[in-house]
Amino acid sequence: MTVPQVDAADILLEEEALRRADALLLQQEVAKAIHPIIARALTPLATYFGGIIIVYYFLETTGGFLVMSLLSAITAALLLMAEHRWLADYRSIRQLEAASAVVGLLIYANILAFLHFHPEPARLSYFILSMMSVVTVGATLRVVIGGAVLSLSTMLWMAYGLGPDIFEQYAMLGIACAFVAFGMVLLMRNAIGRAVKARILADALRGKAQEQAHKDALTDLPNRRRFFIELEALLEPEANSGPFYMGIIDLDGFKPVNDLYGHAVGDELLIQVGERLRSIFVQEHMVARLGGDEFSLLITRPITDAALLALGRRAIESLRRPFRVGDRDVTISGSGGFAQFPRNGRTASEIYERADHALYSAKSHRRGDIVIFDDRHEADIGNMGRVEQVLRITDLNRELSVVFQPQVDVVARRTVGFEALARWDSSRLGKVAPDIFIAAAERSGLIEMVTETLLRKTLGAMADLPSDIRVAFNLSACDLVSERSIANICSIVRESGIEPGRLEFEITETAMMTDFERARQALTTLSEMGCRIALDDFGSGYSSFGYIHRFPLNKIKTDRGFVSQLGDGAIGHNIIRAMVDLCRNLDLDCLVEGVETVGQMEAAQAAGARYVQGYYFGRPMPVAEVLEYLSAEDDRVERRVS
Ligand code: C2E
Ligand code: CA
Ligand code: CA
Question: What CA–CA distance (Å, rounded) separates 613 from 619?
């Protein structure tokens, strides 16, 4: 990982700036706390100045009545205005400072005017009152000190004119009062300052805790919780959201990296994936980590489906570039599903489910691609629910059956085995395709029963087949991760009396990768019993050749997709040749699946494949037809293998 270069001087400058910002914040917060104290002091002061006019009216004997009562009236009016207008709300520290300075000056002016008309020594002490008031209402230290100095120095200057005795008395009084006033004010401000500091700290801590609770600790991206809060917020009627997309991107091939290289490498990989996604979706509303190897997106700017697909594919492309983790390059990929508000749903769970379904569809049909939820998927969801419901109440033993598709050894020119494929002819739904009802059984927890039923039927059929014919049986990912299910499978095989070497279990990469360690244990158990293991649909997922040798495999079946590309020139051909070579190196059988035409058959042979399966040799057939097929075999296979 590269660490950005930072100058020490930069750090110091930054710290200084932070300290200054903190000091400013503290000053402002203290001012906010003092604001109501100052504002509330103004009405009593105004009342005093209003009341004093009446006193002047009755008692004033000098010619100062007019001047003094006018000044008092102005002061009272200004104080009321200040409280109810200018200081009604806290606006800024400067405004508060200016207001408190004006209040101080008004009080000072009133006393000055009074003393002008009543220059008796005893009344000099009024300046002490002026100082006390200013010290109490002064918003800042500047005002407090300025006001106090002005009042005291005027008092001392006047006292000086009245002779040294009086000057000395007032000097002592002034100093004592100044101490008392400043002491009081310091105590008060200190208490306020400390309370404010504690509040600022608590606010900051609360903010930080909230931020942490909403952040994924590993990638620094918003976490699942934050993501759903944001999604819910977008769905609030007040948010007035236009159409927006929610996406889920799930990594393909992350689990083996984690399992093979350890969690530290896995963690670092996730961090880098987060960075790449963030850099691609830099303009978008949110990129979050939902957990594990699942990331999510909110795209709120106006965007067409086509532009979204292009953007999503760019992200997938970027994930395909190797990641440098420590001293190794790691390659993974990703698939993504998107759903749109309001087209595909109006609540968070509807939209999430739809995006998740689109992702599921990408994973099962278009791995390594982006899928946007559409009407077909909506129909799927409806059907899936129905299939699950019906499956639950179905007599599996009566409605499920097994058909057999030949697997041919093109070198020995004979059929060496069959793949057992499940069929469901439902009394309620009609014929349901196996990938549909197997997935439904997996979701609804019925897969163990389904597998058991199919396995018993397959073993029953095998008893009627020649002993040199093998049968391949498909296992689901759920079978592999359940110890109980594997134990059950073993005991069914033992009970059947069928020689375990005739039975081959087919598993997909996805099944193997769901839980690497458990899958490995399960396969080891089956293989120790004497059964063979084939890796199915090889090449459709995140085919990492690196982990194959960690499983007790006997065979690899290439994904049907490569055969259909055989006609399109060299691509499929090269891939199949690479897989054939790989199998030869690892001492594994290689079967090319999905051969339909003579051209594909020839291409598979040219690539060096020995075993072939596909409609070209035979479609899946009921066991009754298998014997017939085998007896007519010599002739047919001879004709078909050139
Ligand atoms: P799969 O294991 O890859 O099975 C091969 C599928 O390819 C079968 O479809 C087969 O009929 C079809 N196929 C064979 N040759 C050709 C060909 O030349 N061209 C084309 N286009 N297709 C060909 P099927 O029987 O519909 O099964 C679909 C999937 O359902 C299977 O894929 C497997 O994943 C799952 N499945 C079927 N039976 C079982 C089962 O008993 N248990 C489990 N867990 N899954 C099963
Ligand atoms: Ca299969
Ligand atoms: Ca297959």
Answer: 9
